[in-house]
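Before relying on records like the one below, remember that each one covers exactly one chain. Contacts with other chains, cofactors or solvent are not represented anywhere in the record.
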Amino acid sequence: MAKRGGFPGGGMPGNMNNLMKQAQRMQRQMEENQKELEAATYTAKAGGGAVEVSVTGKKEVTKVSLSQEVVDPDDVEMLEDLVMAATNEALRMAEEASADAMSKMTGGLGMGMGGGLPF
């Protein structure tokens, strides 16, 4: 008489164990990548290099550098626009690096599992 239910041959528990190990490895790798991203610095320039802004992977501004020729008391609006443009570009670079790292981590998620989950 055939048994109902359970996992014939005991195959599933071994697969579950492998999946858990793979998930733990991936989690450690994601934590390491996150630390590296947060420690990285992203620098962008605007106005032909007249304004330079650096941010960390934590999206904190760490440096703003202005050329003397861009500091015009009669045109503060232009300086504000250049600082904003450089800051936004540096933040975009940090976000892109983070997205790339996540994509590399999750891109192979189905690998080694027969192309995905069996349901």
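Helices lie at 11-39, 76-107.
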